[in-house]
């Protein structure tokens, strides 16, 4: 059974939000969006069967704005299917795949609407990274460019590399709806990154624009950062998706190694984060290695006390200040290490989402 509220006329921009158990956050997200909407916009919220008060929170906003539609499913079909369904339900020429717990900065919608005069295939927006409470900026921008950049269809490799900073973040993607619907989507269900698969599975028919100014505030620590499937998602599924795309090998290597789990420092970091153990070794790595030599390092890191791994990585990133995979600044990695159950000062409860609002699948 699907419940739908309100039905607007065709618009230029549909802001598509897939949500699940976000009662404590989605209100702030909608507040940041609704004040920016024009008659050329709508919001489509696809609820994957929330069992908290998400529906009642959203209904209050529906009563305040005729430009918001809420569709509730009885079951959670996963974030990829839910975003795909939201795009199908949308009526806008373009769809912005917005997240359900982050905030739009003032002027964000206007900047996107003004960009449409170019008849683009895709817009990618920059974002800043904040802590869970949205009080502290951890990384001022995730795409390190100072001016907007326009990419021709022949520049897909360059676009892919330049926006590698936000590929894992769906909230910055604005795509022409007809392109989305014409492309293969089902093969990316369950990957958590359907937006990457849809956009980069083939050359875009038109130009793409990357907006340099951060227009989104990303809330760290409230998505798959705390999912027990994080290792599988980012160390196994993510590389598999990236290396299935029609891009050059050098471009794909700059974004992700085909087998990142073979890297000693990668595994040590994941151990320090609290997402790699003997269980992950047995399930994901052991079936892929044959010789004792190949097995030695992964198993030694898996049995290394997590507190030791966490301390080593804290020291490493504090001293070197290097970025992780050339993308996430040291401050972001240090924040995640402090949120780890292995952090030697113990968990700081304020860093974690409240019970009952964790998302099954991330944006």
Number of strands: 11
**CATH architecture descriptor of the largest domain:** Alpha-Beta Complex
* Nearest-integer average pLDDT: 89
How far is the first residue's CA from the last residue's CA?
24 Å
Structural class: alpha/beta
Helix residue percentage: 25-40%
CATH homologous superfamily descriptor of the largest domain: Spore Coat Polysaccharide Biosynthesis Protein SpsA, Chain A
CATH topology of the largest domain, by name, is: Spore Coat Polysaccharide Biosynthesis Protein SpsA, Chain A
The helix-strand sequence is EEHEHEHEEHEEEHEHHEHHHHHHH
Number of domains: 2
What do these coordinates show?
By secondary structure, the protein is α/β, with parallel strands linked by helices. The protein has 2 domains: 223 residues, Spore Coat Polysaccharide Biosynthesis Protein SpsA, Chain A, CATH 3.90.550; 122 residues, no CATH class. 37% of the residues lie in helices and 18% in strands. The protein has 14 helices and 11 strands. Strands 1, 2, 3, 4, 5, 6, 7, 8, 9, 10 and 11 form an 11-stranded mixed β-sheet that branches. α1 links the parallel β2 and β3. α5 packs parallel to α9 and α10 crosses α13. The longest helix has 15 residues. The radius of gyration is 20 Å and the shape is globular. The C terminus is likely disordered.
Comma- or semicolon-separated keywords:
alpha/beta, Spore Coat Polysaccharide Biosynthesis Protein SpsA, Chain A, 363 residues, 11-stranded mixed β-sheet, globular
Summarize the structure.
The protein is 37% helix and 18% strand.
Describe the SSE topology.
Layout: E1 2-5, E2 11-19, H1 26-34, E3 41-47, H2 54-64, E4 68-73, H3 79-89, E5 92-98, E6 103-104, H4 108-115, E7 122-130, E8 137-139, E9 149-151, H5 156-162, E10 173-176, H6 177-182, H7 194-200, E11 208-219, H8 230-242, H9 249-255, H10 264-273, H11 278-285, H12 292-303, H13 306-320, H14 330-338
Helix pairs in contact: 5-9, 10-12, 10-13, 11-12, 13-14
